[in-house]
Amino acid sequence: MPKIVDHEQYRKELLDKCFDLFAEKGYGSITMRQIAEGLRVSTGTLYHYFPSKQALFEQLAQEICEQDLSTALAELQGAQTLQESMEALGRYLVKNEDYFIKWTYIWIDFCQHKDSKEMLKNSIFKRNNQRYQKVIGDLFGIQDSVLASFVLSFVDGLILEKLWGNETIDFIEQCALLGKMLTVYLPQYPAEIKAQTHVLSSLES
Amino acid sequence: MPKIVDHEQYRKELLDKCFDLFAEKGYGSITMRQIAEGLRVSTGTLYHYFPSKQALFEQLAQEICEQDLSTALAELQGAQTLQESMEALGRYLVKNEDYFIKWTYIWIDFCQHKDSKEMLKNSIFKRNNQRYQKVIGDLFGIQDSVLASFVLSFVDGLILEKLWGNETIDFIEQCALLGKMLTVYLPQYPAEIKAQTHVLSSLES
Amino acid sequence: MPKIVDHEQYRKELLDKCFDLFAEKGYGSITMRQIAEGLRVSTGTLYHYFPSKQALFEQLAQEICEQDLSTALAELQGAQTLQESMEALGRYLVKNEDYFIKWTYIWIDFCQHKDSKEMLKNSIFKRNNQRYQKVIGDLFGIQDSVLASFVLSFVDGLILEKLWGNETIDFIEQCALLGKMLTVYLPQYPAEIKAQTHVLSSLES
Amino acid sequence: MPKIVDHEQYRKELLDKCFDLFAEKGYGSITMRQIAEGLRVSTGTLYHYFPSKQALFEQLAQEICEQDLSTALAELQGAQTLQESMEALGRYLVKNEDYFIKWTYIWIDFCQHKDSKEMLKNSIFKRNNQRYQKVIGDLFGIQDSVLASFVLSFVDGLILEKLWGNETIDFIEQCALLGKMLTVYLPQYPAEIKAQTHVLSSLES
DNA sequence: AATGAATGAGCGTTCATTCAT
DNA sequence: TATGAATGAACGCTCATTCAT
Q1: Is the domain covering B7-202 a CATH 1.10.150.120 domain?
Q2: C68 or D35: whose pLDDT is higher?
Q3: Distance between CA atoms of A59 and A110, rounded to whole angstroms?
Q4: Where the record puts its DNA-binding region(s) (chains A, B, C, D) (predicted)?
Q5: Better-predicted residue by pLDDT, B152 or B80
Q6: Chain A positions in Cβ-Cβ contact with residue B186 (cut-off 8 Å)
Q7: More confident residue, B6 or B14
Q8: Given an 8 Å threshold on Cβ–Cβ distance, is C107 in contact with D181?
């Protein structure tokens, strides 16, 4: 293997560490010096691995998309009923609240970069969203895309409210409520969720 | 006698025009020069009316909170059933989609600015959120705060998805679905909504 | 009398009030707005009476020069011995400490304006200094110009030390010391000072 | 490896070159761009070495205090009598007239900057003045603090008069006069000055 | 590969000055 | 005469980026 492997690997390591940095200060506010300091390298080194701040950010955004959501969502499997699924979702959101808020910050930052937006919207971005919808469908046994969008939007909104400092929102309570409403709304809903067997492998596509 | 200008009124006019400017580029990215250009005044004039960029932004945030909530939501009154209410909400979201997306950008930008965040979270910010929740309660006859948060989060999420370029989301469809789910979930829900008479006046509090 | 008299008079009133303003902040640091506020007029009015900040400052410098020092120095007359004269000088300096420090600030500010410096150095400036030297000669019966310069420099230095925050300097003590030294140094000094009769009128020249 | 530059040394080189720049225009009037130009570096580089204009100025003030006092006054040693000492002082003042005038400008500028005044008056400023007084005492064998202040003020005043363009002042003549006056005033004064052996080392304290 | 010194355009902001009223 | 709104060049300072080492 040529040296390029090490280079690439190191680049990815740096990229990973950038997540928190961008999330905490925002694209516009964080400086390359601060990023370099956070990564424990010099600005020169940073520019050795990334041609520009914009490129670094876009690679980070890419990386987030590429990162397999499967490992994270794996926790949600195993529930026997929809209600249990939703309660697991609530616990999962609580546990990863910080991560989701940061993730949200970064995406929104990204969306304000119009040029890159158009560049990526059609590829990674949309694909990512579709994945989420699919995961929801598989995970919760919701095949109707409108219903999947409903759940997705609701979860987005929960995180957004938290991001806005709304401390009255309780993820567990809200997800439980969603579970109850869905259960009532979907009388045809099977007692046991059988469809989720291949959730993770379905993400590969 | 000086040039005849109603200082306060002109200030508000400028403020209104700032909304789009901030929304399009974000607080951190737009410059005072760009704002001045967008407003067709010099930077000096801009600073004549607003002591700093931060102050300008905060006044804008205030203004949005003060004004739009009541006037905008006024349109949602008049529905006879919850289902109708939700369908009106859907149409309202569609109609003001751009506005809400911009509004969302502005708030999120604001949140990444930590200093102002701490300064305002306790005042305008929280108060605004409480208002929204109250409006939802009054408007849709939902008194349960958990349920109100549910609806609020759902609406937030719809907008966020749109902001993220998710074009598969249909506000009307989604709101209709919410209506159906709520109707099923709340069998005790009265056929006619009577509670909403004083929605707007309740905003005064 | 034409209106110009009022104009001129008002101009001088404004000028007088500028003394403290310039002295406290310095030419470079004070703004025309601050001056206008201190004068209780608008900037427009300020510019109606003075064509520019520089001109205002130069007129002030002129004014200070023109102001008859006689009234102030009059207090120093009446001493019967050199020692008494010097003690009176000490008390006088203590009493007007603030004024002299401000006066010194303004002059030094003025000296840093090279253009105006050259313009005025030869006229008002030098004449002013000669006057001081003359006053010292007449007042203290010191005819030797070197000795007069000595006393002048010493007094300048006392004020400068105070301006620099040296709180250990005691004007009265220092002037008394000067008196003693001069008395010892000038054994031929007459017991009574007779030469000072026309001190004030000599300033007219 | 970075560009090979001794950061500290280069910083001091820049600092030295700043002396004239500040002296000629004054703290308030000179701009960082002008300083950068005078130093033949970019503003960015200037800020790479000094965090702010104020800090640059304070470091300069420090530097002056630390360095010049001892090295400069070293020249004054070696006189056998008070009269000789004073004549050496006169020659020294003539030789360094420009330097002292600039030095005076710098300090006065500094004093009109209130914030820094309060910050430093207690530290560098006062300490510096005390040192000067001590040097005078040691150098001229003057132990009485009132007398030391007298000499200090007189020297300050000489420089101030020169700064004000008074060309009739002759440092040598004036210092010789001071010498004579002191000699007459201090009959107890020893024919040979013995106390000054350790003047310079006394500055260490 | 790695460093950090160097750059300069551009930021938020100020302020002497002008001018419509 | 008097006002204060308006201007824009210039301020102190920042920061993405380049480059000599």
Answers
A1: no
A2: D35
A3: 11
A4: 31-50
A5: B152
A6: none
A7: B14
A8: no
